[in-house]
Write a structure and sequence with these properties.
The complex is a heterodimer of chains A (371) and B (282). By secondary structure, chain A is α+β, with helices and mostly antiparallel strands. Helix content of chain A is 48%, strand content 20%. The N and C termini of chain A lie far apart (108 Å). Classes of the chains: A alpha+beta (371), B mainly alpha (282).
Chain lengths: 371, 282
């Protein structure tokens, strides 16, 4: 019920207890300090990477993550689950090549982390089944950990960590890494969602080309640029001939296939500075900066010929489609705005349709033209 | 003697633990590599830490309010980081405040009794093939919540009541009721309610200090009662003076066991008990 009351014994007990308490306080102090440091780093990370640009996030992680995690080396791969490809997004390994892409099966450890949906931890990678016998002079200590980056059970990447000053990994370290990984996952996922939303807002859902709204904004800018720098600018409008017949004969689904095939040709034949867009229905446009009408003619004809050679198969029948193209070059003397350029190309397209289809017609060719 | 009120206990956010006990757990946590880590092994023999962990796990924050009945469930829910912080912020029990030493309560015996009861309850549950052996273990570990709270807050008063109970050969519960108007059993139950513990743990706290003739309706309380009784019988009493236990036959009947069966299990139970006793304590 009560402990010895002998004064000497009591003094001894008190001394023992005070020594234990001193050790305990010291340990509590250290551990609380470590916890506060972790919290500070986590808040700093949150402030640093609360961004919507994935590229910026990747850059900041490359510079700061090793300090935030008290780790020497890290690599962060983003995972494309459809293609089963891992892209090196951020790292601080000297000599590791940029733009590295790996198949999921190329890295057994990351493959395991993705497949199992949990971290893989080995105290000595050279003895682990993943890297048996492998020596890396870069690492002073051989532990490694691969943490899958997950959002609602979907894996979006893998974070690999190697080596630290201490030379070992405690459960507190591991817990901290997992918390940081969760936060990075969320930030990356948000940035990816933002980029996707942004992409969708400027892209035509069926063809993947720029949508009309986005295209019009771009054209307006290009017209201003052309006016300012006196650089040539051309516009091509393309329309699928007798598209209604395709829809009526083979169905709308097949009509969509035709539009997608033409869009694919446009993407392929466009140069890096050109912009292809879906203007509406079966009508497409091409903005060709730094290109005069004769250059635009060559491109439009190349596209028209490619489309003509396409073969479609439906219900055992093979058929082809043609397009008509109208081109116009921006004329700063006669045109005020982008709508004038669209009008000129549209007029040329109308002429192409009127004069037999499957051809390219150049608008505003001479002074007698409306424009 | 200070005025003792139930609100003093209900205001507590946990109980303090022995400094050596906290130090052991923290040292284990900080030196253990992440490879061979089992947080449960580190905390499962300290009643004060267990109570704090259960209290946090049963808050609505984690989505399982009043549903976490065992340390195993709590460890799975909270994760090592949260548990480390709970251990880190466990207050230190100051044992030698009384300069004369006369009123120094024997906390070590109480802690040891609760630890042994936990080990026996967990083992009994396994032998009885109860699915909730982890809950029985935890029940055994925290069954003395009320006494531990009294011992932490009012050690001198508790010692005096224990002496009175011994002198007058009456149970500690009846002395407490006479002096305080409530008992350590009531205190334990009310604290568990205030901390949002699940009903089965609250019932266990209520029934395990019930009178000899009372009927215990649930098996968790029955297992903890039997474990408490065995701990007492095998030399690890809580040293609370005259203690009262539910009749053995009633427990046997509730748990559907016989004297012979218990005798068969005794070597294994004793082994478990010794392991719990050997858990390092300063």
């Amino acid at each position: 019920m009560s402990q010895p009351v002998n004064e000497e014994q009591l003094e001894k007990l008190k001394k023992q207890e005070s020594m234990v308490i001193r050790r305990l306080l010291k340990m509590q102090n250290n551990m609380l300090g470590e916890s506060l440091l972790h919290m500070d780093h986590l808040i700093y990370l949150q402030k640093s990477i609360s961004l919507v640009s994935l590229k910026e996030i990747e850059k900041i992680l490359a510079n700061k993550l090793s300090y935030i995690l008290f780790i020497k080396y890290f690599s962060l791969f983003l995972y494309d689950k459809n293609k089963r490809i891992l892209r090196l997004a951020s790292h601080n390994h000297p000599g590791l090549k940029e733009n590295l892409f790996l198949r999921q099966s190329d890295s057994e450890v990351m493959d395991q982390a993705i497949t199992l949906g949990r971290y893989i931890l080995e105290q000595d990678f050279s003895k682990s089944r993943y890297f048996k016998g492998v020596k890396n002079p870069l690492f002073q200590f051989n532990f490694f950990i691969s943490i899958p980056l997950m959002i609602e059970n979907e894996i979006i990447g893998v974070l690999n960590l190697n080596d630290n000053e201490k030379g070992y990994l405690t459960v507190t370290d591991l817990d901290y890494y997992l918390n940081v990984a969760e936060f990075i996952s969320l930030t990356i996922s948000n940035a990816q969602s933002f980029e996707k939303a942004e992409r969708l807002s400027i892209t035509d859902g069926l063809t993947g080309l720029s949508n009309r709204q986005y295209f019009q904004g771009l054209l307006k800018n290009e017209v201003l640029r052309s006016r300012r720098y006196h650089s040539p600018l051309s516009l091509v409008m393309l329309d699928v001939d007798h598209f209604k017949n395709i829809n009526d004969t083979y169905g709308h689904q097949h009509g969509d296939d035709v539009l997608m095939a033409i869009a694919s040709i446009l993407k392929r034949l466009c140069r890096s500075q050109d912009v292809a867009g879906r203007y509406g229905g079966e009508e497409f446009v091409l903005i060709l900066p730094e290109t005069n009408a004769s250059g635009a003619w060559v491109i439009a004809e190349r596209i028209r010929e490619k489309v003509e050679k396409l073969r479609f198969k439906q219900d055992g029948k093979i058929y082809s489609v043609t397009i008509s193209c109208g081109i116009a070059q921006f004329d700063k003397e006669k045109m005020q705005a982008d709508s004038d350029l669209i009008g000129a190309a549209d007029e040329a397209l109308y002429q192409a349709k009127e004069t037999g289809r499957n051809k390219t017609v150049q608008g505003n060719r001479n002074a007698g033209n409306k424009y | 003697m200070p005025a003792i009120n139930i609100s003093d206990f209900l205001a507590l956010d946990g109980l303090p633990s022995l400094p050596g006990q906290i130090l052991n757990v923290l040292e284990e946590i900080s030196r253990t590599s992440a490879m061979d880590y089992n947080i449960l092994q580190k905390i499962q023999y300290d009643p004060a830490i267990a109570l704090r962990v259960l209290r946090v796990a049963n808050t609505p924050l984690y989505g399982y309010a009043a549903q976490i009945s065992s340390l195993q469930q709590a460890a799975g829910l909270l994760g090592p980081g949260a548990i480390k912080n709970i251990v880190l912020t466990t207050p230190i029990l100051e044992r030698y405040q009384d300069k004369t030493g006369i009123n120094t309560f024997d906390y070590s015996s109480l802690w040891l009794h609760m630890r042994v009861t936990a080990a026996l309850a967990g083992n009994l549950a396994s032998l009885l093939q109860f699915r909730e052996a982890d809950v029985c273990f935890t029940g055994g570990l925290i069954h003395g919540t009320g006494v531990a709270a009294l011992a932490s807050c009012y050690p001198a008063a508790l010692l005096e009541w224990i002496k009175t109970a011994e002198r007058e050969q009456v149970s500690l519960l009846s002395v407490e009721r006479g002096k305080l108007g409530l008992t350590h059993r009531d205190i334990g139950v009310r604290m568990a309610e205030a901390w949002g513990f699940p009903g089965q743990l609250i019932d266990m706290l209520d029934y395990c200090y019930t009178s000899e003739t009372a009927c215990i309706p649930d098996k968790l309380s029955g297992v903890v009662c039997l474990a408490r009784r065995l701990a007492h019988q095998w030399g690890y009493a809580a040293n609370l003076g005259v203690d009262s236990f539910v009749e053995r036959e009633k427990l046997f009947s509730l748990l559907n066991i016989s004297e012979k069966k218990l005798a068969d299990w005794t070597p294994q139970l004793l082994e478990t008990m010794e392991l719990a006793v050997q858990v390092q304590e300063e």
